[in-house]
Amino acid sequence: MQTFSKTLKKNETLNPKILIDDSEIKLFNASESLAKKLSGSKDYQEVMKSLIDLKDSIDSFFDNVMVNTDDDKLKSSRLALIRKIRLLFLSVADISYLSS
Fold this sequence. Notes:
Order of helices and strands: HHHH
Structural class: mainly alpha
Shape: elongated
Radius of gyration: 14 Å
Oligomer: single chain
Number of strands: 0
Number of domains: 1
Number of helices: 4
Largest sheet: none
Helix content: 55-70%
């Protein structure tokens, strides 16, 4: 699995201390827990189940959080959180190839 900190863009910084909405805090906590669980895991079915379990947290995030806020630091953290979730999925498989 790729290390998340190496894949952030220069202007993206994930600072969990400035996350303010319950939905983004829950998603951050779930992603942290899942990242620890996935590191080194070889059980593909368990990994996929764990990723699917993020669905409600992801839905809540996008339903309740305005990512492109005027606060640049908060916006950067939110974008970095989205990127982190994306990388968790890509650490298992790039499912974009399945649509071809």
